[in-house]
Specification:
The chain contains 18 helices and 14 strands. By secondary structure, the protein is of the alpha/beta class.
């Protein structure tokens, strides 16, 4: 089955270049470091100058941010090793640069062709490979095992939808999971679904996202943003919005006359869509200002377009309420834990299958309210913005909720140390 899988990958090779070209039209960074995607790296990186290499794969922004506590602990526990972060998206790579600077090395993980994966492993000679969340690449895992590189799947999550997809390649998936040296899942449900697919060495570690610490610099920037937005204004943040959600939000916002005194802040999930959202705002005749203008928001401004990267914690600190994007339409939702960590009350839509357990626990804790659509979102937000005691209680519950579920980093370190000492 793996040979058939690889054959199909070769058939898809021309389409990979087409896909990169299409993405590069909106985000030119996709054309950068192209050789790395096929296992070609700078000669000076070979073996990371003779140091031991701890390799961690974080696909994009969410996985990279979630890895922060683990990267810090690995750096402290293994000072003689070099940490290598691999990514799939330019935004993940940019987030890595913002968070870690030169303290880690970052490259793109090659596509799952045997020759590319083999080149990657020969070049960096990692002491261990740590795949984050749901990264089950069949050739990568096989070649890692063949090269005697211990392969771990940590912070693993697997939705029912994804599990059904993997059952179409049951034997291939089972073989890959059984070649992993250890798997640590976020929840018992994730562990059970992985077990049903054939995984044998599965433990439950919790979710690394609970261990993230809001950087002091982001807290200070958040306070500055609040002053910039208007210290006396009511701020509703819509964070990490996805395609189609902004139009729904803007239409509902304009239909709610009671929201005229509320400043709406929209931060799209993907930076290549900033200009697209600006066009939506202009077509609706809304008075808006870009965050990148970095100036005081005028009293007549209705919407701020958050066209910046790496400032999500600051936006949460600045807001009275945060609505988490990707949940109004069936994208599965984005991370709500960061908002709770800084004590920002959260509203979330009906589609949260990417964060099922975290959302359920947050709602039960009283830190999050679920709404069915954009109209209900603004009605609920307006009621909360005029109920200081309810907002304060949600804020406190959010902080308690996050504190109660910390500890995943310790368990992840236990799994890693059991493999590499």
């Amino acid at each position: 089955m793996r040979f058939l899988y690889t054959f199909l990958l070769w058939l898809l090779l021309p389409f990979i270049f087409v896909r990169l070209a299409l993405r590069a039209r909106r985000q030119p960074e996709y054309w950068q470091h192209l050789g790395e995607r096929f296992g070609f790296y700078h000669p000076t990186d070979r073996g990371m100058a003779g140091e031991g290499v701890i390799w961690l794969h974080a696909v994009s922004v969410g996985e990279t941010r979630a890895s922060a506590s683990l990267v810090a602990r690995l750096g402290a526990a293994y000072p003689d090793h070099q940490i290598l972060l691999t990514h799939t998206t330019p935004t993940g790579r940019a987030t890595s640069a913002q968070l870690y600077g030169d303290s880690v090395r970052r490259v793109y993980l090659p596509y799952d062709y045997p020759f590319a994966v083999q080149r990657f492993l020969r070049h960096f000679r990692p002491a261990v490979g740590i795949l984050m969340e749901t990264e089950i690449w069949f050739n990568l895992i096989h070649e890692g095992r063949a090269a005697d590189v211990p392969m771990l799947l940590l912070n693993a999550r697997l939705s029912e939808k994804s599990a059904k997809g993997y059952t179409r390649f049951a034997s291939l998936t089972r073989n890959a999971l059984q070649q992993l040296d250890a798997i640590a899942a976020q929840t018992p449900d994730d562990a059970a679904r992985l077990g049903q697919l054939g995984a044998e060495k599965v433990s439950v570690m919790g979710n690394l996202k609970f261990d993230i610490e809001p950087p002091p610099a982001m807290r200070e920037l958040g306070k500055a943003l609040r002053r910039q937005f208007g210290a006396d204004r009511k701020i509703l943040l819509t964070a990490s919005t996805r395609e189609g959600e902004e139009a729904l939000l803007l239409d509902a916002f304009m239909a709610q006359s009671a929201m005229k005194d509320v400043l709406l802040v929209i931060v799209p999930r993907h930076p290549q869509r900033f200009d697209e959202i600006a066009e939506l705002l202009a077509k609706r005749g809304l008075r808006y200002q870009r965050r990148s203008e970095n100036r005081e928001v005028g009293a007549d401004v209705q919407v701020v377009l958050g066209d910046s990267m790496g400032e999500m914690f600051a936006y949460y600190v600045a807001a009275d309420i945060a609505c988490i994007g990707g949940s109004l339409l069936p994208f599965g939702g984005q991370n709500l834990i960061e908002a709770c960590a800084v004590g920002t009350p959260v509203l979330i839509g009906p589609h949260t299958f990417n964060f099922t357990e975290a959302t359920r626990l947050a709602v039960e804790a009283g830190a999050v309210l679920r709404v069915k659509d954009a109209s209900e979102l603004f009605r609920t937000a307006y009621a909360l913005l005029n109920d200081a005691s309810a907002l304060d209680e949600m804020s406190k519950q959010g902080v308690r909720f996050v504190a109660a579920h910390r500890g995943a980093t310790d368990k992840a370190m236990g799994v890693i140390q059991a493999v590499i000492g």
